[in-house]
Amino acid sequence: MIGAVRRWGASAPLVAVPVGWKLALLALLGASVAFIDRPWMLACGVASAACALMLTGASPRALWAGLKGTTIIVGCIGLFDYWSHGLASAAAVTTRLMILIGFAQAVTTSSTVPAMTAAIETALRPLQWIGLLDAERAGLTLTLAIRFVPLILDEIAAIREAQRVRGLDRSIVALAVPLVVKIILRAQDLADAIDLRGPPPRQGRQPVAVAASAESRAQRRAARRACGAVPYDVSALEVGGGKRGDTAP
């Protein structure tokens, strides 16, 4: 749902709000909603979350598609809390969770990934100044994590379709094993791509030398070829009647 404003129009009221303000309000709400226990305050929170979702400009069907999975999980949590603590506690817990999920859905629907990454990097700059972390690396990690979510969902859909054809659609093992393998291979390809382009240099350090980076990539490819994970390296094939790197006599 992140960046859905591109499909439903950039004129929605919530889209005009800066991403930094939306993330700050979401963090403040997450820290304070746990202390809300009065029914009328929880009802106001639910109404506010519904209004925020409406201000994103997304269609109700699209909003429900993004909330459906989390609603099921919250329902299971509510049933467990009802069994262990009673109806009042279950109602309060599920209402708090739905308020947080509603506002988080509104923020992600009305924001794009680059804007959210830039806002988080800006918020982490003070921690970089005192040497606790690298804001650019943290932003890159966040972007990759967000990007992997739809990729994993696509892989699950493709694997389930293939297993359904084979009559294994009810087997959890038949879904989990190829999914884990595909995720590992995709993460390895992503690491190779980052090595090729070069990760953001750490503050106060020089970038890694090109020769050392090339040697690391060559060693990684050799290890993957030994495991049979990727085809043979094309640099070892003959080019123009001889192998690459051959010198004329």
Automatic annotation (TrEMBL):
Coiled coil: none annotated. GO terms for cellular component: plasma membrane. It holds the Pfam family CbiQ. It is found in: Membrane. The chain crosses the membrane at residues 12-34. CDD domains: EcfT (cd16914). Its main location: membrane. Keywords: Membrane, Transmembrane, Transmembrane helix. The keyword Transmembrane applies. It is a multi-pass membrane protein. Residues 197-216 are annotated as: Disordered. InterPro entries: ABC/ECF_trnsptr_transmembrane. The keyword Nucleotide-binding does not apply. Residues 203-216 have a biased composition (Low complexity). PANTHER family: PROTEIN ABCI12, CHLOROPLASTIC. Belongs to the CbiQ family. This is Cobalt transport protein.
